[in-house]
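TICKET: design request
STATUS: open
ATTACHED STRUCTURE:
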């Protein structure tokens, strides 16, 4: 289970739970959210493949591929071209339209004053935000290394609850690639 220390001191725990087909075979995951151990919401039905893709993307960005190479510090490197883009947004709504939770990750560029040099230094951070069924929000601010560790932990646990099934199974062809099998 992935856990994040939030800016208000609380702990957001994210646990992958297997989605099963009509005969009970696990095929994907949903994420269960807990705030300081108390149930907080359920989000991201069938989000495992997206998490596996994000884990690869963050790791590649940290290595300095693509647009991420313009950031000198690997902790400022995230996937995507947009410096302040959204990496994911998982939501859940009941059939009656009631919110069941939200988990999202938005990139933000933050200027920090460097007194020794007398200059501003730009940094990038991932703002992981969760909203529970009560409407109370939580926020954790992560470097790319921390985001990579968090997402990789979720992917590893998800593959375990899917009886070892690889979440990245469609990376060459199929869903999300523009190619059919």
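STATUS: resolved
RESOLUTION: sequence designed for all positions
ATTACHED SEQUENCE:
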């Amino acid at each position: 289970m992935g856990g994040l220390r939030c800016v208000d001191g609380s702990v957001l725990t994210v646990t992958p739970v297997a989605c099963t087909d009509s005969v009970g075979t696990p095929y994907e995951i949903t994420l269960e959210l807990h705030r300081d151990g108390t149930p907080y919401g359920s989000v991201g039905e069938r989000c495992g493949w997206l998490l596996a893709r994000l884990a690869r993307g963050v790791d590649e960005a940290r290595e300095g591929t693509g647009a991420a190479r313009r950031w000198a510090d690997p902790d400022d490197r995230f996937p995507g071209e947009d410096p302040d883009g959204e990496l994911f947004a998982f939501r859940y709504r009941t059939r009656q339209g009631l919110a069941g939770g939200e988990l999202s990750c938005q990139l933000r560029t933050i200027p920090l004053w460097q007194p020794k040099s007398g200059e501003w230094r730009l940094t990038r951070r991932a703002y992981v935000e969760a909203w529970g069924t009560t409407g109370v929000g939580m926020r954790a601010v992560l470097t790319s290394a921390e985001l990579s560790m968090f997402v990789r932990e979720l992917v590893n646990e998800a593959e375990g609850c899917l009886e070892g099934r690889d979440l990245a199974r469609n990376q060459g062809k199929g869903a999300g690639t523009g190619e059919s099998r």
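CLOSING REMARK: The chain has one domain: 3-168. The longest strand covers residues 99-114.
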